[in-house]
Amino acid sequence: MPVTPYRTNLFQDRKDLYQFLLACQQVSIEKECTQIASISLEIDPIDPLAVLHCLSKPSQLSFYFEKRGQDERIGESSRRAIAAIGAVSSLKVEGSQRFAQAQDFIESCLINTIKTGDLSLPLSGPHFFGGFTFFEETPTKEAYFPNSTLFLPRWQVACQANRYVLVANFAIDASANLESLLDRAWGDFQKITAIKYRVPEVNFQGRGIFDQRDITDTKYFKLAVLSALEAIESKQFNKIVLAHAIDVISPTLFHVIHSLSNLRRFYPDCYVFCLSNGKGQNFIGASPERLLSIQDQELLTDALAGSFPRGKTALEDANLARGLLNSEKEIREHQVVIDFLTQSLSRLGLMPRRSLSPHLLQLSNIQHLRTPIRATVPADVSLLQILAELHPTPAVAGAPRDIACQRIRSYEAFERSLYAAPLGWLDHKGNGEFIVGIRSALVNGCSARLYAGAGIVAGSDPEKELTEIKLKLQALLQALV
């Protein structure tokens, strides 16, 4: 993966850009293999969500990822947002080897990538984006997303630490028409840099005109909880996470960009995300749960399990927080996730570190027990290897994991698809971040399917678990427009 020295901004002069693309074509001819030309440069401040709004098309793969609030690595408040649009190379695979195949795909792309520009910038260089469905089995025919989607985008616009970075990637082979490619690239670049606005905030909440329908009757969910409790009592498993889904129908098309804008405003401490499949469907959400991130070989993952609502007054809120921190049931559910994560990392040869007691992650309408876990990652262990080991955690599946996943299939009468599944990005240096696709919705034109789940352990109450799920569904209901 060579780095070619050119001026910092090749888009300042068409001739310089053409010469770089021509040099990449010469390499493709010599190697008899398509080369990817990757250009990184700093640009003026811009809202990546606005870029997604202006540049993306329903027929293209695209990805959006944003996290505001406190950055635990540097101890400061920060914002990180990435919009990835179009695909110069993509992978869709199925089966138990999907994470290994995804790693092979990334490595094969990077071997044939020629990088130029300022690679010292944050989020510079080629990045890969996508998601893996909850279950590895082949999805049903009507499934909108394959088991695995990973792509290298044509355009990537990102901001981090008040730096704004554009990465352009172009696939070039011996037959490429460089003049035509240059014209399209130059036009898209001018369009991106001409964007001078942020996506406007939309206060309208359409819940009053939405038609809501449970996928299965809520009585079915409560019966499933009772059945699960009997199985737990008979020692078949220790925990299972059961989900419920609702369909929301709007008289007009849902506006994905404005819904994402609402999500990032309502839930600044969550990961706001959107994966588009290139066929008109979008999986969006605001997840509080990071599955793992790696930066310079330092890993950070979260044990996130155990939930209470927020209080309507300061006194009630404080009492609920204290109750969560002292709840034997919630702490037991939380400990299951901690044990799983630390044991999984240890099996990979990592040495996990964590605090002795959890603290609270308090969102606008719900609060969770959370324990960050850290580890140093050896050079011979990849992010996707770790991802394959961790997914799904007991926070979204149960324990023992394999038994819980089998029972989820029998209890739930809908396809999870990307719900509670890993979504995120990886870069050319082995860094990356994946979140868990909870508090999420599949948006398809005028309809949206919303998902939420609850962890069932000994002592769970069906009515309370259903109440928790309805509370979690509000995160999307309040934001959809």
TrEMBL record:
Q: Which organism is it from?
A: Trichocoleus desertorum GB2-A4
Occurrences of domain Chorismate-utilising enzyme C-terminal (ranges): 220-472
Protein's UniProt name: isochorismate synthase
Q: What's its EC?
A: 5.4.4.2
Q: Which family does it belong to?
A: Belongs to the isochorismate synthase family.
Task: Kindly report, in one word, the top-level EC class recorded for this enzyme.
Answer: isomerase
What are this entry's molecular-function GO terms?
isochorismate synthase activity
Arranged from A to Z, the UniProt key words for this protein are: Isomerase
- Please list the reactions this protein catalyses: chorismate = isochorismate
Note the Pfam families from the entry.
Chorismate_bind
Organism classification = Bacteria, Bacillati, Cyanobacteriota, Cyanophyceae, Leptolyngbyales
